[in-house]
C-alpha cells in the first residue's frame, strides 16, 4: 500500500479530477466520504489531505463538516473552494456571503511571494472560481496568500501547520498554473516524491493474483472494450492458461472490432479465448423491440445467459475476472446524495451474476481510465484496443433509434466507421472524447442522379468531455463535416441526409438511447 493522499469528498463536481491530477503527479490518491473519521483514515498510511469543493455554503445551517481530529492530525491539508471555507470556519476565520456569487475566470494576484504553494506561479495568472462565500478575516497564524478583484482572500495558508486553502479550482485546465500549485502542495508542503508508478502496481498485482489463485482456474468475459481487455491481459500475465476468456460476439460491435479483439488475444498475446458467435441469437431477441430500456435489458440478460452457458463447460473454475474501475467503486456519500434517478441501465460485462458462486478478481479497482490505458500499453496491448473510445455495452443497438435489423446495423456500422476514420485522420487538437453515428428513425426525400430518394437520416455526434458525465459538442471544422457527410451518403446505402448533433450534456445525454 503506497502512502496516500486522501480527498475528502464534499460533493464536488470535480472530485475525481482532483484525484486524477494528483496521481498524474505520481502520488497515490483516493477519494473518501467527507465525514470519514480520523480513526479510519489513520489506519491507511495518509500522507496528506485535500478537502474538495462542494455545492453547499459553509455558512449554511447544517453545512457538512468533518471530524475535528482530521484538522488536528498534523497532516498537510489543502482545502479547495468549499474545502477552504470549511477549514477557515474550523480555525475561526470570518466568512461572509457574497451578494453575487463569483463563477468563471478571474485574475489571481499573489500577495505572498514567499509561500511555497505559489512557487513558479507568476504574479498574475488566470484561475477558475466558483463560490458564493468569501473569507474576510483570518485568525492568528494564517495569512492571505493571494486575491482576485472580487475575492480578498483567494488563497490562505498557515505554514507552521501546513494547512492551506485556495478559493479557486487548481484541478481544472482553466486554472493556468493549477498543476504547478497542486505539485507545490504535494512536493514542497507535503514532501511527497514520485511514489505511485504503474510498473510497480503491475508487479504487485501480478504477485497478488498468482498467490491468490494458486493452481485454480479463472474466467473473464471480454466485451471488446478497454477495461476487460486490460484486466484479462493482466491476469493472464499472472496465471497464463489457467485463465479462459469468453468473448460473446453479439454482433453489435463496431466495424472490425470483433476480429481485432480475437487477433490481439489469440495471436499476439496467446491467451485462451473461447469465441461465441451469437449474432443471430441477439438479432432474434431484439426483433421488433424499439424501446431503448427494453433493448438494454434484453441484451444484458442474453449476454449473461450465453456467458454462463460457456462458463459451465469449463470444469473447476473458481474465479471471475472483471474490469471494474475506480470511478465505479468510489463510495459516494456526498452531503447532497440521494437515491439517483435511473437515466439508463448501463450494461457492462461487469454485472455478472452472484449465483455463479465465483470469487471476483478486479485488478483495476483502484485505477482511473487513463491509467488503465497506460497499463494496457505496458502489457503490450495494441493501440487499436487500448485507445478505443468509450462504447456502450449494448453497442450499436442503442445507436439505432427504433428496432434493430441486420440492414439497419449495416447502415449505422458503415456510417460510424467513416466518422471515426475521418475524425482520426484529421488529428484534431483537442481530440474529441467520443464520436459516432446514430441512425435515426427519420426518412426524408432526396435526389440522387435524376432520381428521387426516400432514405434514412444519420446523425453525427462528436463531443468533448473529461469523463462522460458532462459534455460539450465538438466544434468540428466545416470541411471535416463536409467530408464525413459526403462520404456517408455516397458510400453507405440507404442514407441520403446527415445532421450534426449540437446539444450539450446536460440537457442531452451522450448516446441517444
Ligand atoms: P450517456 O449516454 O449516459 O453516456 O450520457 C455517458 C457515457 O457512457 C457511455 N455509455 C455506456 N457505457 N455501458 C457502458 O459501459 C452502457 O450501457 C453505456 N451507455 C452509455 C457512453 O458511450 C458515454 O461515454
Note the overall shape: globular
Largest sheet: 9 strands, mixed
Bound molecules: xanthosine-5'-monophosphate
Can you list the strand order of the major beta sheet?
A: 2-1-3-4-9-8-7-5-6
List how many beta strands DSSP finds. Answer: 18
Distance between the termini: 41 Å
- The helix count comes to 15
Q: Considering DSSP H and I runs of 4 or more, what fraction of the residues is helical?
A: 25-40%
Uncertain runs: none
**What does the radius of gyration come to?**
26 Å
Structural class: alpha/beta
β-strand percent reads: 25-35%
The averaged pLDDT comes out at 93
Task: Describe, in plain words, how this protein is organized in 3D.
With 513 residues, the protein is of the alpha/beta class. The protein is built from 15 helices and 18 strands. It has helices at 15-24, 38-42, 68-71, 82-90, 178-189, 198-213, 226-239, 257-268, 279-286, 292-312, 326-329, 369-378, 383-386, 406-426, 478-491, and strands at residues 4-9, 28-33, 46-51, 77-80, 94-110, 124-137, 143-147, 155-158, 163-166, 217-222, 243-249, 272-277, 317-321, 359-361, 434-448, 451-464, 472-473, 495-500. α1 links the parallel β1 and β2. The protein is globular. The two termini are 41 Å apart. The model has no long low-confidence stretch (mean pLDDT 93). Xanthosine-5'-monophosphate binds next to loops.
Reconstruct the topology from this structure.
Layout: E1 4-9, H1 15-24, E2 28-33, H2 38-42, E3 46-51, H3 68-71, E4 77-80, H4 82-90, E5 94-110, E6 124-137, E7 143-147, E8 155-158, E9 163-166, H5 178-189, H6 198-213, E10 217-222, H7 226-239, E11 243-249, H8 257-268, E12 272-277, H9 279-286, H10 292-312, E13 317-321, H11 326-329, E14 359-361, H12 369-378, H13 383-386, H14 406-426, E15 434-448, E16 451-464, E17 472-473, H15 478-491, E18 495-500
Parallel strand pairs: 1-2, 1-3, 3-4, 4-9, 10-11, 10-13, 11-12, 13-14, 16-18
Antiparallel strand pairs: 5-6, 5-7, 7-8, 8-9, 15-16, 16-17
Helix pairs in contact: 6-7, 7-12, 14-15
Bound molecules: xanthosine-5'-monophosphate.
Xanthosine-5'-monophosphate binds at residues 344, 346-348, 390, 392-394, 434, 468, 505, 509-511.
